[in-house]
Task: structure prediction
Amino acid sequence: MTTKTYAALLRGINVSGHRKVPMAELRALLGELGHTGVRTHLNSGNAVFRTTSAAAEEALAQDLRDAMEKHFGFPVDCVVRDHAYLRTVAQACPFPAAELEGKQLHATFSSDPLDPARYAALDQASYLPEEFRLGDRVLYLYAPDGLGRSQLGEALSRPALHKDLTVTTRNWNTVVKLVELTQ
Result:
């Protein structure tokens, strides 16, 4: 049996005291699902685990969503990605990641491919120097003053823009750490 390492990226937990998911309980829950080597990174919903399951990433995400809703009593969207994908995301970054602070660069991971037509109505020039680029199931955002002050980030987070998708954003420091943890 081949063992593969994945990262589960949970969306919208532990924000301002709402939708609390203690990391110890998340680790235990992943263990109950049969995963091993479970670790969490930060308190914002990043878990790494190994599995011998041949299930696709979406099936692993659905199993975790179902278990979390049963355990915590509320739904938690998540995206599951393997090490190879995360490494490729980091390597394919269209912005000079090595020259930027982690808070200036973000990756929004998507459950499905991102159609450029979804973003066609955004006038990117009006947000400069902020920029975004699309990759393989990921949106890269350069926000020189950080995400909290980013007008483009706010525009990109509108629910209508990501209708029928599960999306969750991580700063570049977290992306790099997840690549390392899933190795």
Notes: Strands lie at 4-10, 36-41, 46-51, 78-82, 105-110, 131-134, 138-142, 167-171. The mean pLDDT is 95.
